[in-house]
Design a protein that fits this description.
nine-stranded mixed sheet, 2 domains, multifunctional enzyme, alpha/beta, 16 strands, hydrolase, oxidoreductase, Dihydrofolate Reductase, subunit A, elongated, riboflavin biosynthesis, Cytidine Deaminase, domain 2, zinc ion binding
């Protein structure tokens, strides 16, 4: 059945609602739900945080005229779940409320769902339509789909560079490159990703905290590559303030919210790290490393998105930023005097 303009408008509303959960639902996907009756919205909701009620539950709860539910049409951005997890199955709830029809943006690739939610609805005699704004839905939940389908986290590379192509001063001396608005944007990006990764040099020279103190949201898991355990224990990464994982070729016991993962020197570094992150249910990682880490991931093609902040400043020398011959520029916008360039694969 072809979808109407009203159907598309309602699903766009559901997608907008889903975005409100960004940074809080991981490792669950972002989901929004809109319930309509006779051409008007009677309820809506979204998945607000991991462990909390799902979008369909919140939408049903928001309906004040419950007697209208059996004549309602439900728009949801992801297939209703069919299994017991932190909450009961949402497909069962829609069956219980005897809704008239359900329109779904994306099917859920999670093996615990994977069509079972739709089957429950259809078995109960509830018609289901799928695929409305499917591309937009996959873009919204690109972290979730990458994790489920490719069995690794979604990888975002980020760096700030000067107009003449440098990201640090001579000998990796930290220098301010981007402006205040870009700094705030970076903290927002950190809040949206599950983990954040730096290499040894960045950790040593910048002594970063890798938190979201400039933006509301949850701090990401801190990841650092320290092959020989050479970083000073007094650095901010080891202050125990948020979960931290160190990837190393040596062995050290976990202490004070800091875990150590011993990798094999005989195998490639980053595939091991990504496999470990998948095992830990980490769905996305923001890489703020220096040129060694960035260039390695670029060379191996182990990235999904690149965000470059380009400042009008000139350094005249220093550590060169990665040199890209990329196509696939998706977005370009200004943040104060800085320009942001976003590339995505596919």
């Amino acid at each position: 059945m072809p979808f109407s303009d009203f159907d598309e408008l309602m699903m766009r509303r559901a997608l907008d609602l889903a975005r409100l959960g960004a940074g809080y639902t991981r490792p669950n996907p972002l989901v929004g739900c809109v319930i309509t009756h006779a051409g008007r919205i009677i309820g809506e909701g979204w998945h607000r945080q991991y462990g909390g009620a799902h979008a369909e539950v919140n939408a049903v709860a928001s309906v004040t005229e419950k007697h209208l539910l059996p004549q309602s049409r439900v728009y949801v951005t992801l297939e209703p779940c069919a299994h017991f997890g932190k909450t009961p199955p949402c497909a069962d709830l829609l069956v219980e409320k005897r809704v008239t029809e359900v329109v779904v943006c994306n099917l859920d690739p999670n093996p615990l769902v994977a069509g079972q939610g739709l089957q429950k609805l259809r078995d109960a005699g509830i018609p289901v339509e799928t695929g409305l704004l499917e591309i937009e839905g996959r873009r919204l939940n690109r972290r979730f789909f990458t994790f489920q389908e490719q069995h690794r986290p979604y990888v975002v590379l980020k760096w700030a560079e000067t107009a003449d192509g440098y990201l640090a001063g001579p000998y990796y001396q930290p220098v301010p490159i981007s402006g205040e608005l870009a700094r705030l944007a970076v903290h927002q990006w950190r809040a949206e990703e599950h983990a954040i990764l730096v290499g040894t040099r960045t950790a040593l020279h910048d002594n970063p905290r890798l938190n979201v103190r400039e933006w509301p949201g949850q701090d990401p898991i801190r990841l650092v590559i320290d092959k020989n355990l050479s970083l000073p224990p007094t650095h901010n990464l080891f202050d125990g303030s948020q979960p931290t994982v160190v990837y190393t070729y040596r062995h050290r016991a976990t202490t004070d919210n800091v875990g150590y993962v011993t990798l094999s020197e005989a195998e490639d570094l980053f595939p091991q790290i990504l496999a470990n992150l998948h095992q830990r249910q980490v769905q996305s990682v923001l890489v703020e490393g220096g040129p060694t880490v960035l260039n390695s991931l670029l060379k191996d093609g182990l990235w999904d998105e690149i965000r470059i902040i380009r400042s009008p400043k000139h350094l005249g020398g220093g550590v060169a930023a990665p040199h890209l011959g990329l196509t696939g520029l998706q977005e370009q916008f200004a943040l104060g005097d800085d320009q942001v360039f976003i590339y995505r694969k596919g």
